[in-house]
Amino acid sequence: MASQANPRLMFAILAAVFAFLYVPISVLVALSFNDGGLPTAWTGFSVKWYGALFRNGDIMSAALNTLIVAIVSTVLATLFGTLLAIGVEIRRRKGRFLETIIFAPMIIPDIVLAIALLSFFSLLNVTMGLHTVILSHVVFNLAFVCSVVRARLKTFDWSVVEASADLGASTVTTLRRIVIPVLLPAIVAGGLLAFTLSVDEFIIAFFTAGAGRSSITLPMQIFAMIRFGVTPEINALATLIMAFSVVALALSQRLNRGGLPGQ
Amino acid sequence: MIETLLSLKGIAKSYGSVRAVSDLNLDIRQNEFFALLGASGSGKTTVLRMLAGFETPTEGQILLQGRDIVPLPPNRRPVNLMFQSYALFPHMTVSQNLAYGLEMERLSRAEVKSRVDEMLEIVQLSHLSRRKPDQLSGGQRQRVALGRALVKRPRLLLLDEPLGALDKKLRGEMQMELKRIQSEFGITFIVVTHDQEEALVMADRIAILKDGGLLQCGTPHEIYEHPGSRYAADFIGEMNFLSGRVRAGELVTEDGTRIAAPVPADVMPGDTVDIAIRPERMKIGTTNLENMVKGQVVATAYLGLDLQVHVQTALAAKPLLVRMTAQEVDTAQLVEGDDVTIGWTAQDTRVFRA
Amino acid sequence: MKDRSPALLMAPALAWLTAFMVVPCLLILALAFFRRGIYGGIEYTFTLENLGLVFDPLYAGIFLKSAWIAGLAALIAVVLGYAAAFAIAAAPARRQPALLFFAVLPFWSNYLVRTYAWIVLLNREGLLTGIARWFGYDGELPKLLYTEPAVVVGLVYNYLPFVILACYAPLSRLNVEIGEASRDLGASGWTTFRRVTVPMTFHGIATGFVFVFVLSIGNFVTPALLGGGQFQMIGNLVYAQFLTANDWPFGAALSMVLIAIMMGLLTLQTFASEKASGSGRHD
User: Fold this and answer.
1) Where in chain C are the domains?
2) Thinking of the domain C49-282, which architecture would CATH place it in?
3) Domains plus CATH for chain A?
4) pLDDT for C39
5) Domain B238-353 maps to which CATH number in 3.40.50.300, 3.40.50.1220, 1.10.10.10, 2.40.50.100?
6) Residue A150 · residue A85 · CB < 8 Å
7) Is the CB of C21 less than 8 angstroms away from the CB of A115?
8) Angle, to 10 degrees, between the axis of helix A218-227 and the axis of helix C111-122?
9) Rounded distance between C-alpha atoms, residue C90 and residue C100, angstroms
10) Distance, in angstroms, between B187 CA and closest chain A CA?
11) Helices A7-32 and C148-173, axial angle in degrees (round to 10)
């Protein structure tokens, strides 16, 4: 029924909203190439701020930390999340309690999960560092992977599982040769999503990384830098991070929508 | 003496308090093309799934060549199922789908390849062996599903509504194809279907299931010509039904017309009965048959070469159906409103206790 | 694949969630009822003081302030988001997926970066100042960054894509004929929108509002960066209890209240959505 709406008004709304969404980040991207580095004047095109970025040891070590956290937590979350999704969908009975537990990591405010984990690790006298960040990131990452894989399983033809058993395959063989390969695009999409979330995640990392420079992640580094104002290096870093997220998301969407031919 | 391959002994299946199948006994012979026929909810699919191993009977035994296979999981039974949805593996090519079951038997690569190639020939898919299921037509997919199950050389092949997803024309071709393959391989086929025509065309024997129990089992001819109950008579083919009553040793319809028919022994005087006559057994314009009744043509409809004539009579509220061959049609030249006489023999009349 | 395997498949994930989510959250719940130690530790004696402290005028004020800012952000986000979703749903069907994709895309870029973009815009030496100078305005612009409106704008900016997504789902499912039926029965376009479209898509509106409200009230990044520490919201208060004031039991109590608000709103939202779509049918 929205089709009866006034097209000019609709266009104006879209133009305004898209401008609101995209002008701030576009300005950021443009400024990262501004030779002078200041937002008040354009002094010519340059990539020198990107160069400065790669010579900044703090940023590079934070980026390395983020990469470690994202890779390890993504691998674990993809494994656990996929198995969880398959398990939940095979089970015919849908438990409300189970659904709540699986859904919770996606809706609990970050700050609450962050302080809960901080208290938990401190009371157990666990020395905090990158490993505790990884443990924590797996919590929400596995929930997201699970939800992506479950969405794919909703259209999954379970009779292929029975067909595999009928042809002589054991449960493990069926999982390895039929279920996982058919789900692969969704699993990869979920993994990419998890990786992106982990790279971008700030609050939980901030609370569970412990003290000391050695376990600072990239978002923590950015937070520290922007509290003290605008520097051209952050513009460059911000541009790179946005580009990464956008590419990863687009890839994930593409994989998931296309699926395997014929599904 | 034909050897029995499979025996169902007192099979029952309940889901909680719902009884899907109760006390089913069936013997299926070596090399037989057997059809389990029934409406939805008759329990036919449950029986098939118990044979394949996806459901466990609540009671009873399933003996395959004398050995009870109930305790065996699906992957350890020498029985294969062709799924209604075909359940082809979407990420594998036609060849890979066919090879899958053989790989599970840990056969050598060379053996797998030669048997897959052989089966591709039989199901006429050699030229499509590298395609994936979504690049195939419905009929081709069906043949992949059939080949995938057959290539394992099971003692028993189960087919769940094998032709249900195909259009009418293709269905006719595939019926013949299935019969050809079955006789070539000498494998016992059990087909589950709700389509009585399909069962009549393909099967050596048919079991009609109703409400989880066996209603009748026999050859297509036995079942068509001598249905054991009103339900079976109604379910298989077209049938005219008249309500009647046995009075003073005679069979009389509701309007008082006497019907000549063999009355079964279990029908007592005073019982109400259903009288059934096949449309093709009724003749229009003949004079010397045991049963004769006047009526008026209310509609005609062509069914291929045959003409189906709807004749309103005093015998029943519904018009009777009469099926005429092309020759009969040409001589009779019937139009709506014509007054006609319908006749049929006592021998072609079936009587069931109501 | 049927009998015991689901439990086996789910076991690792459920064990993980239990260890690193359920137990820590229960711990926080428990902490809220313990006393704060003299030197910042935790004294394991039961008390209701922490929860009582939440209602202390000082903190209650922060709560009200947070709720005001979160409510304002949620309201603006819902109005903008619903309008955008409506416009996307009105676009030709083949363009809708792309429009939706680009509306949601910024949501997936880094939260800090998106917030930082507003610092660049609103900074005293920022882009807006630059533009003003370019037009020949030499005076001081009013202070933009580190103000309450800056925080609200930042929150709206960050969460708007989600609202668009939440509102688009029910709008895209609306049957064209229902709107036509309303027009056919004599309703004007505006009346149709008010009496049919909005009630039938209320679920999305409510979801969007609750989401923005809950995430905003517990937010500490945006107030810290765009508010410049000029005022505190609950998120900042929780942050402070754990990282500076070292009063964990009070921090725990605050986050319990946060969770309670969230759950209360979610329940209310479910209830309200049912009622709205129900009354939409009966009207």
Assistant:
1) 49-282
2) Orthogonal Bundle (1.10)
3) 58-258 (1.10.3720.10)
4) 66
5) 2.40.50.100
6) yes
7) no
8) 20
9) 12
10) 16
11) 130
Type and span of the H or E element at B20: strand B18-29
Distance separating alpha carbons of residues A142 and A79, to the nearest angstrom: 8
Is A214 within 8 Å of chain C by CB?
A: no
CB atoms within 10 A of CB B310: 18
Q: Work out the average pLDDT over C57-82.
A: 92
| Cα radius of gyration (chain A) | 22
Describe the crossing of helices C111-122 and A232-258 by its angle, rounded to 10 degrees.
140
Tokens of B227: 């249905």
| pLDDT digit string, tens, across residues A66-88 | 999 999 999 999 999 999 999 99
Give chain C's mean pLDDT: 84
Q: Find the helix or strand (DSSP H, E) in which A60 lies.
A: helix A57-90
Banded model confidence at residue A92, pLDDT cuts 50, 70, 90? low
DSSP state of B74: G
pTM, to two decimals? 0.80
Question: In sequence order, what E strands does B232-337 have?
Answer: 240-247, 250-253, 258-259, 272-277, 283-284, 291-303, 306-313, 320-324
Note the residue count of chain B.
354
Q: Is A176 on the interface with B (CB under 8 A)?
A: no
Is A242 in CB contact (< 8 Å) with chain B? Answer: no
Integer Cα distance of B13 and A93 in angstroms: 21
CB contact under 8 A, A160 and B152: no
Q: Which amino acid is at B278?
A: R
User: Which positions ≥6 away from A259 have C-beta within 8 Å?
Assistant: A152, A185, A186
CB neighbour burial string for A25-51, b if at least 16 within 10 angstroms, e if fewer: bebbbebbbbeebbbbeeeeeeeebbe
DSSP string, B184-222: HHT-EEEEEES-HHHHHHH-SEEEEEETTEEEEEE-HHH
Both tokens of residue B130? 């590298």
ipTM: 0.89
Is the pLDDT at A263 greater than 50? The verdict is: no
Nearest to B100 among A167, A261, A262 (CB): A167
Residue of B nearest to A261 (CA): B134
Chain B residues with CB within 8 Å of chain A CB: 52-54, 73-76, 80-81, 83-85, 87-91, 100-101, 104-105, 132-135, 148-149, 152
* Three-state DSSP state, C201: coil
Compute the distance between CA of residue C241 and CA of residue C247 in angstroms, rounded to an integer: 5
Residue range A42-61: mean pLDDT, rounded: 89
Which value, to the nearest 10 degrees, does the dihedral of the CA atoms of residues B322, B326, B328, B329 take? 80
For chain A, the chains sharing at least 3 beta-carbon pairs closer than 8 angstroms are B, C
Domain boundaries, chain B: 4-230, 238-353
Distances in Å between the Cα of A145 and the Cα atoms of A154, A253, B171, C1, C248 are: 14, 13, 43, 21, 32
Percent of chain B with pLDDT over 90: 58
Please spell the DSSP secondary structure of A181-193, one letter per residue: HHHHHHHHHHHHH
Identity at C169, one-letter amino acid code = A
Q: In what order do the strands lie in the sheet with B59-64?
A: B18-29, B4-15, B59-64, B67-68
Query: Among residues B134, B158, B133, B155, which one has the least CA distance to residue B146?
Result: B158
Q: Are B100 and B132 in contact (CB under 8 A)?
A: no
Superfamily of domain B4-230: P-loop containing nucleotide triphosphate hydrolases (3.40.50.300)
- Contact between residue B65 and residue B5 where contact means Cβ atoms under 8 Å apart: yes
Q: Which two tokens stand for residue B181?
A: 């393959």
How far apart, in whole angstroms, are the C-alpha atoms of residue C214 and residue C258? Answer: 8
Chain A residue numbers with beta carbons less than 8 Å from the beta carbon of B84 are 159
